[in-house]
Predict the 3D structure of the following.
Amino acid sequence: MSSVSSRQDEIQKLLRSQGTVHIHDLATLFHASLDTIRRDLRQMEEEGYLRRIHGGAVLPNLAQESYAERAQELQPERTAIAQKAARELIPDDCVAFFDSGTTVCEVARNLKPSFRGTVITVNPMIAVELASHPNAEVIMLGGTLRKTDMVVCGPTTLDQLRNFNADIALLGTCALHPEAGLSTSSTEERATKAAMIAQSAEVIAITTADKLETSLPHRVCDIDAISHLVTGRKLSNGYLANYTRRGLNVIQA
């Protein structure tokens, strides 16, 4: 096996375990130049193994994956994010919108037993998860169920959302970019997230690191609309500077 093949195999392993790689980290790890790492990533992108982003690469998007399959990806990082958000950003007596997404469901699973507030959710998995919580009040919104994403959406959902004023909107993140803001792949999801933001005093975005520096077709909001960003990997300050400069409180789990 050539050194190039060996290095690229190791990059694939890192991507599968971490979701994101950064060129400076890879150059240090492999004692290689930045140009060498860039060539590796360019070749691997052409072969479909990754998607390049500013300063590194992420796993390619796999839209055909089911909700259950997505929930198994990057599980240690999701759990760390969820525990951080649940313990430090969700007050015990708050009213909170819980958005769709596997990481948001993980937050529900990690809510403190002392939580005695209200969770309003569009994700039936979250409602089921919180059914056994000793103190949480749970409001499950109605609407059309998108089975692949385990989320309700549509006009009924939006009408019901607008009946509430929340302290917090806890948003799952499909894509977050310092310039393009928060975005998603469907108009229905965009509308739901935007309604949650409009009805909330504070917005928390939670995401695995592979969703950073990415954008999708349907824009939800500017980065400035988000109060806190919780992500899992210990990313460099330089990598996160574009977010902190825009006023986000960035928390790394």
